[in-house]
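The methods section describes the discrete structure representation at length, but only in general terms. The central task, working out the structure tokens from the amino acid sequence alone, is never made concrete. Nothing conveys this as quickly as seeing an actual entry. For illustration, here is how one protein appears when written out as sequence plus structure tokens:
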Amino acid sequence: MQSASGDASVFVFRMWRRDLAAVEWEPGPRLLVHLAEDGSAVPEQLSWVTRDGAESALAFAPDMSSCFGHRRAASAHLVQVRGELEGHEVFEDADGVHGFEFTTETLGKGWHPAGRLRFLIDDGEESPLQWAAWRDRSGNAYSVGLWKPGWSGESEEFVVSGLTLKRSSANFIGYRQPAGQAPVAYRGTLVEPPEAPLFEEAREPVAPAEVPAGTPQLPLIGSVPLVRTDFSDDEAWAAASSQVTAPRQVFDDDVFTADVEPVDDIRFEGLTAAQLVQLVPPDADWALLVVADKATMESPERHVLVVDLDEENLGQTFRATPPAIQEIENNLSIANMDWEEFAGNVDENGIVQPML
């Protein structure tokens, strides 16, 4: 990875923590911070969450000599934190900690290049970063949600239709708000060596499966179908369909909804993904199907099956929680993200969770 510059641009703070009822401060791990979009930027406020659920928030002195804030551990234990500037380090050599460099884009009438973002937040804890939000001295605000299997301790490999695939890309999505302006969608891709392949093996479409005689096509509707294929539990179906179609509030004020319509027809009972893709009407303009199957009815979180309808990946699947369908459908339907960006972002149980 290239350095942000040859300068020592990483702020290194010596940190202390204190319980709310305590008087004395106890030493804590050092904090390393570097946030720069095409140049060095001085943060004014910074918040971040790690994969284990720990939350931290800090404000910095105008001269960056100190910081103060709070931290809530994954156990929900809340402490005050403060820090004093100890020195600076070079981005590429920051105490053996590796920062990230992204090529970024913002959304206007389509996605447009927005330069490079160099990013390092290391609080000395073992859990990797999940998202961060900050405001710099110029009044520019950012929020980024990070994802890559390796950052969360998951495997860099994943299996689709019996093939073992490997992802080498990492990404973020979020917003960027220049001072005094409205926020815009913001995304980035990790800068990596160009020879790193996205996949180690070629993908193959799922082989067609025989459909029972007399089975009708799926109804030609404008929304992506949520097809019920298991009829063992009406209450579970009602809960799953309600959760999939429920509006989701993202950030503070933005509310998004999956453009999905439940299809409750017993003639589709027991059908597999390979069979359902053959029942898609020729005039349908769907990027995916969502299926509520037996596993959905038996799962406490009602995870559903997502089926790709793209010709290159036809019939490939992954499972996702109902809240994640909003992000999946909204992005795949407008080709804002690729299938692999979701299929390669499963949790330890093989389920895609919401990114935001």
Residues 324 and 354 are 4 Å apart (CA to CA). Confidence is low (pLDDT under 50) at residues 1-6, 149-170, 193-203.
